[in-house]
Amino acid sequence: MAAGGHFPSDIVWSAFISFTIAHWLYWYGLKIPFHESDTQVPTARWSLRYGLPVVAGAAGVGVLIALYVTAHGRLLNETIPLTSLGAPVHSFEFSAPTSDVEIIVVDSTTGDIRVSGELHGFGLPGSSLDAKHDFIDSALRYFIEQNGWFTDLDCRVSFEIPARTLRAIAVHVGKGNILLRDATREHLVRRGKLRLDLQSNSGRIRRSEDD
Length: 211
Fold this sequence. Notes:
- The chain has helices at residues 8-29, 32-36, 43-69, and strands at 71-81, 91-98, 100-106, 112-123, 128-136, 139-147, 150-162, 168-175, 178-182, 195-200, 205-209.
- By secondary structure, the chain is an alpha/beta fold.
- A six-stranded mixed sheet has the order 1-4-7-3-9-11.
- Helix 1 runs antiparallel to helix 3 (43-69).
């Protein structure tokens, strides 16, 4: 929202609120129908007075029910021990249809990748939204799996990755911002020790270093 994006549910609620205010001012605040006619207000006008609010109210309740019934997602707060993978991690890869991503490369003695963030979206019944990872040929792949059709989707993920045996980082998102932070003492990113493949079809890509 701060970046200028609007979910369909935001638009529906804005329209409902605008209609409610306009309807109240027209009939009760300014009483325009009573000033427009010296006689009684026509029956058709009365149907608009009471019928439209009922329809709009039912639509608003329908949107509210849809928001709660079709919500998907979960909080991300996990640790991936690199020692449990059975081999050194040379490449870290992340992919998602929509997500803001923060990658922090650190000097860590624990050898764990820390993951935090949130998956949140509204989709049709039967849709699913989850985060998974696998390890193939020295590459740790972390991805957001989206099945079904979503009207609203908002994902944010942060990774703290030990440099250790890392040689490459790849991030591919359809929509979202990417931030890469190099918190290593040797400034591996600045010195070109890590191969980077950062791609976002719609979003900003930034790099920063902690001194």
